[in-house]
Give the backbone structure.
Amino acid sequence: MLALKEKEENKLDWFNSFKEDFILNFVDKGRWKMLVKGFGNTLLITLCSVLIGIVIGVLIATVRSTYDKNKEVYEKNGGAKYIVMRVLNAVCNVYLTVVRGTPVVVQLLIFYFIIFAFVENGLIIAIIAFGLNSGAYVAEIFRGGIMSIDNGQFEAGRSLGFNYFQTMIYIVIPQVIKNVLPTLCNEFIVLLKETSIAGYVGIMDLTKAGDLIRGVTFSAFMPLIAVALIYLVAVVVLTQLVKLLERRLRRSER
């Protein structure tokens, strides 16, 4: 009986301690609002960055795949078109090499403290930095999708009177988007987690919000676990949505 009573008292003490920590970290002074605001900024940065990355990725993938598919023709005909495409392809390759070869946190710091040091809104800088970073990876996703399209599709476009770029816009790109859509959704998930470094430049994202709560309450366990759980739930939900999308795409193919 005595041991059972001590066990119940220990459970009660643990519950009271947990309750006090919860109130201290989230209820007092409405600190939970910091997590809500931080998560909102995280989603905003992620969504805007993905949209920028898609635009940049499509443009770069189009340039690189066009040059790769028509390289022999350009070299044979020469002229200004060959020079322009060669320069654009070289610029795209440099961009991809630099962005994919350096850590995203270093890129963010360079954008914040050097390139856009005159800009006061760190949220905009983060969106640009993550957007440019995402664009490099999205470009390779789209380029792989374009290169996987059968050449007969390009020939069909030419037979309809389209030039190469019209064929890309009206025939190839729609098929590519359908093929790479699940991969793009996964890129969104990866970017969601990568934005956790936005706090390095003082942006109130989800991770930074948890860190600020920890700095005020001097309690590390509760805020950091809460941040981890929020990220986990968001990623699980997005992953399930991606799986649902993949199943629907497979049904449409049948």
The chain is about 85% helix and 0% strand.
